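Purpose: get a first structural picture of the assembly so the mutagenesis plan has something to point at.
Setup: two entries, given in the order below. No constraints added.
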Amino acid sequence: MDSRAIGIFDSGCGGLTVLTKLKQILPNENFVYLGDTLNFPYGSKTKEEIIQCSIKNVEFLISQNVKIIIIACGTATSQSLDILKEKYDIPIIGIIEPTVSYIKELDLKEIGVIATEGTIRSGAWEKEIKKLMPNIEVINKACPMLATIAEEGKAKSKEGRCVIKEYMKPFKERRVKNIILGCTHYPIYEEIIKEELGYDVNLINTGETTAIFTKNFLHSENITANHQKQREKIYLSKNTKEFKNIAQNILGENLALFVTL
Amino acid sequence: MDSRAIGIFDSGCGGLTVLTKLKQILPNENFVYLGDTLNFPYGSKTKEEIIQCSIKNVEFLISQNVKIIIIACGTATSQSLDILKEKYDIPIIGIIEPTVSYIKELDLKEIGVIATEGTIRSGAWEKEIKKLMPNIEVINKACPMLATIAEEGKAKSKEGRCVIKEYMKPFKERRVKNIILGCTHYPIYEEIIKEELGYDVNLINTGETTAIFTKNFLHSENITANHQKQREKIYLSKNTKEFKNIAQNILGENLALFVTL
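Result (structure tokens, whole complex):
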């Protein structure tokens, strides 16, 4: 038993898609979320910059007395997870390993991956996938504008749609049936992607895979909590006009936000 | 005579399109430029937030001992120029008045305006245009993603093109011949806009109109400088990976950047 909260961070609002899955799957846990809106977007930052941001985020969450930290951000996972794990004793979970373990069970011949430029460039998804499934074909597509458009609350605008149309081309041509949403902002586009592809596609939500992985981890380490009423605190490193709207859309609740740093 | 520099600010790199015109038209002046990258984008901020950012920017430029300040940002001009003029003694020039005075000479029946959401919502362009040309028809189009796409260095990407296609629809249908680029980021899209419209269009660059206006102002006030070698200093409120590339594309020079705040 460990009644402390689960800490989560992302570059902005994307990680809320992970938080919402965590809340469903872990109804007796509390959560502290940090959206590093001050430093958004991570996707176009250097590895060194992302590591610096991730360290700050982890230290903030540790100061909030969390028992485990989830990097609810594809870019931060791909660039900083190894270093953070080495530097800190607290358990840290990224979104790549849980997702790749899940895919292994599907026994696929090919898999699509969409993510930010930095994440695709790092090859982190492909490396992790090939480690467990050496014969699978990986079709990568960097989507540099998607997280930014979502963060500005424009995911469902005409601009969002026309950018999705562009990014989906390599998958549509080959009718790729399974695509990893390798950035936690992307579940916001789920419907639009399905409409654009027009065939039956399985969009793999890293929030879901990460939440299941986290649940198993808490049980195996015997550090679950048993709160009757789930609580969450959402911190931002910079107040943005759009965050509250997006957060309410994703979480479906009236939220109190706290600005920090 | 006044040998002090001309101060310029923008939310990011857009104002560099104004700086480049100022440098051409005023070869004996020095410049201090501040890109408020920390608070980018202004287009989705409230009026109050934009005023606060503008005040900080003006105070930084005053601390750099400039003789005049140019708001090289459509959004900041539309939301904060009046208040800044009241608050400070230093002459402050926005991009709207110089552009509208220029258009008056063209004697047009209709004019297109593209700008950020905040600027279009404020009605600042339309109000100023109607003041001088009460019978002209103004066709406004808010382009919420354009400044952001430019700031991320993606103006010439396929994403940039498909967003431009969307935003140009109201002008293409009516074959609008004169369009004000009401955000200083937009000259970066000049070629793409011309290609998308496909007819002979006059895109009014606020950098050019503002530079001419500034030159006339310096002469009328007798505060020109006479430097043999033009110097400029470019400050950012936050270092971004793309800024240097974009700046070099716009200014065509190898630049030293300084991070402040």
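Chain A has a mean pLDDT of 94.
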